[in-house]
Structures are given as C-alpha cells and as structure tokens.
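Tokens as discussed.
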C-alpha cells in the first residue's frame, strides 16, 4: 500500500532515516522540522499518515494532535517520543493519536507499525450504491455506526471520534452484548502487538463514554464487565427483556 506520509521531526538525522525507510516501502514522504510546519502541510496536502515527534520547536506534537483532532481531520497519527512514561503515552492517545513509539526504536518495528496503521485506516475513496451493503450500517439502540462513511451518530446526532475510537465501537457494534477483552480490543487497534499496553484500550473506552453516554460516569451503553472487559448494549432492550422475564 503506497501512501502519502508526513514526517515531522526536528532531528535531521532521525528524519532522514525515517524518510529512507518509508520511501523504500514505496511511500511518498514530506519531511518538516517543526509543529507549525506539520499543521500547514496537513492542511494543504492530503496525507494518509503523520509520523510526529512529540518534542519539536514552535508547536510540540501533543499540540499538533490536539489541533488536528479539533479540526476533525481523520488521518492516522503515529507519535514518536523520547519520553518513556506510560502517562505520556496515554496522554498522546487521549488527544487522538493512533499509536505511540518511544525512542530509541527499531526502524523495522516502525515500518511494521506504519503498515498496520495504514491497513486499518485505509478505506475506498469511492463507493457505488451497489457496493454499499446494508450490514455496513450497524445499530445498537440509539447508536448508529456507518462503516462505509466512517460516521457515528447517537440519537441522530453526529459524534466525532478518532480512528481508534471508531474501530473499537465498530467492532463492538458488530457483536452487541458480546464481552470483548482488552486484548481483543487492542487487536482491533493495532493487531497483536506486545509493545502496546492494554491501558490504551481503557483510555479509548473512557473517551467513547464521554461521547455516547448520557451520563459518562454511570454508563448504560458501553459497560464494564469486571475482570473480563467491555460490552456494548442497548439499555432499552435490556429493560424490556427484564420486564418480560
């Protein structure tokens, strides 16, 4: 899969190394050296992926992600950082990054992460009515997930989600009432990757609850099954089932 990739990295040697590996895999690469340049390049181009260093001049990577997601831009974002604490990782994901790697990293692992992200965020640019299958639109109570259009709505109101949040909700909407373990949801995000913490799933679930629950601290749709994982349910159907039993 050939993609348009922006590499935002102020370390010129590091940026050149990443550029060479990406071009070796057939991608078109643009390199920028600061956060504001990264924002400008995303806004004026049509990138599929942003490889983004956290610590950069003019605007750091966290601010870049915050702005891009506020503008509802859906490109995949892979963050690179010399910071190694899990709190930093979770903050990046909380803001809307799709994946996160700590320096120093293996270029081969970086390319594997890039391939995974591009596979999971790639979808056809054009779709004819004949290919718009009915089962591409999933409904669980008030929640509607349109995979073809990459749209989510709750009670008829559109909800903006990051690519990672969308993948989790789409997977759960396809099998309502099924309990998904954190490892299973992690596989939906990144494939089976031993370098990614299952706490990343908890961050996405927390953010989804803010968007789809009437009262996020007392969820009725996206439920925790203690000791196992999470499930998506229709509270109205659950109440009706209990009343008839």
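Sequence:
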């Amino acid at each position: 899969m050939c993609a348009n990739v922006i590499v935002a990295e102020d370390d010129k040697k590091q940026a050149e190394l990443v550029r060479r590996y990406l071009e070796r895999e057939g991608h078109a690469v643009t390199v920028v050296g600061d956060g504001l340049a990264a924002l400008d390049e995303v806004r004026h181009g049509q990138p599929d992926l942003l490889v983004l260093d956290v610590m950069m001049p003019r605007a750091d990577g966290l601010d870049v992600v915050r702005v891009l997601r506020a503008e509802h831009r859906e490109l995949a974002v892979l963050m690179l950082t010399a910071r190694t604490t899990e709190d930093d990782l979770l903050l990046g994901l909380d803001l809307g990054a799709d994946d996160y790697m700590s320096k120093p990293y293996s270029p081969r692992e970086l390319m594997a992460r890039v391939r995974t992200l591009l596979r999971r965020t790639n979808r056809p640019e054009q779709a004819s009515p004949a290919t718009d299958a009915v089962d591409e639109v999933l409904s669980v109570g008030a929640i509607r997930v349109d995979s073809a259009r990459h749209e989510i709505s709750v009670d008829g109101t559109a909800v903006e989600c990051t690519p990672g949040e969308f993948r989790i909700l789409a997977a759960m909407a396809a099998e309502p009432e099924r309990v998904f373990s954190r490892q299973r949801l992690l596989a939906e995000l990144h494939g089976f990757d031993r370098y990614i913490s299952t706490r990343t799933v908890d961050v996405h679930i927390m953010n989804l609850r803010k968007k789809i629950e009437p009262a996020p601290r007392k969820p009725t749709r996206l439920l925790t099954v203690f000791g196992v994982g999470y499930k998506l349910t229709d509270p109205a159907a659950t109440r009706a089932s209990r009343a008839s039993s």
